[in-house]
Design goal:
By secondary structure, this protein is an all-beta fold. The chain contains no helices and twelve strands. The chain is globular. The N and C termini lie close together (5 Å).
Amino acid sequence: MANYSVNGTGNQAVAGGSNCGILKLENWSSGPTSTAEIYEFSIGAFGAASDNNYSVLCKRTTTTGQWYSQPAQSLDAKSIIPIASGWRASSTTGTFGGTLASWSLNNRGSMRWVAVPGGELCLPGANSSGIVFEFGYAQSTDLFTACALFRE
């Protein structure tokens, strides 16, 4: 299995809002599908931090939505192109199939989730399906940077 990272910088929260996408990993709309495993996710302030509270949701998604492309980077010695595609910062996140996890954080701190062995988040093996990290609650409009590590 090969290891990859997807990074999203400058993701802006929407004050009082939700469903503002941070980072997404998904299968293309056609072609081969991946059952990539996300084993780490982190998020923190991008720029000056303020004393605001946020919640981050991890959900399965079944439609694409509107995102900016963020190519995955190989973490291994060999530069292998992954099947799964990476995306960042959305205004329309798509249709969801269920919440997998949720975390709360203050913008003055960072949050890092690491899966226990066997507890990785797996992409659904269907086209246009994936896993999205989004704000569930945003107290302000701070900027964030996020990173997801996965293998396939």
